[in-house]
Amino acid sequence: MEAGYLEVIAGGMFSGKTEELIRRVKRAAIARKRVLLFKPDIDRRYRRDAVASHDGRDLRAVCVPADRPEEIAARARRERPDVVGIDEAQFFSGGIVPAVQELVDLGIRVIVSGLDMDFAGRPFGAMPVLMALADEVVKLKAICVVCGEPATFTQRLIDGRPAAADDPVILIGGRESYEPRCRRHHEVRPPSSPGTRGDDV
Ligand SMILES: [Zn+2]
Q1: Mean pLDDT of 42-68
Q2: Residues with C-beta atoms within 5 A of ion ligand 1
Q3: 39-43, 44-48, 136-140, 164-168: lowest mean pLDDT where?
Q4: Under CATH, which number does the domain 5-140 receive?
């Protein structure tokens, strides 16, 4: 049995992580490797990005419930792919770590892509652990929209203003957006208290 191998593609939003994952998976498919691609069933907006085409046949990501990453290992045990790609790995529960380790132990080349930090600059989900366990880590950078330097952070804006670290992940009402920023231009407002909310401080 061949030895497995773990590659992690990390970075902020807009840094091209999914494109890099798809590029690697496509090359494996061209080399006639059997490929399985997974993503958490939480982020349906990007479903169509995770499609690679080879010989007229689409390579579609299998959507797995974010809290049941063990289904990735179960499916790989049945289908015995050579290569497994996992996109948006930060959204999977902690069970993604033993699942990935099992795949690697089965001799599979595993390519994981995900956000290494959340909008507040905090390590995101199981990504730091996966990066530690990886044979190879690539950190991709976007471009800071303020100064044009390489951007390693993801800026969250709510109604055009930097979000606070404790702002709810699911927003009711306010308009939110995300943009790539460098360390110098990444802003996180201090935790908001009811009295200061909405003030320009
Ligand atoms: Zn900048």
Answers
A1: 63
A2: 144, 146-147, 149, 182, 185
A3: 44-48
A4: 3.40.50.300
Location of each CATH 3.40.50.300 domain in the chain = 5-140
Compute, in angstroms, the gap from residue 61 CA to the centroid of ligand 1: 34
Please tell me the distance from the alpha carbon of residue 77 to that of residue 12, in angstroms, as a whole number: 31
Give me ligand 1 centre to Cα 116, in Å.
19
Percent of the chain exceeding pLDDT 90 equals 75
Note the pTM of the prediction, 2 decimals. 0.87
Ligand 1 mean position, distance from CA 99 (Å): 37
CATH architecture of the domain with residue range 141-201: 2-Layer Sandwich (3.30)
**Residue 89 in this model has a pLDDT that exceeds 70:** yes
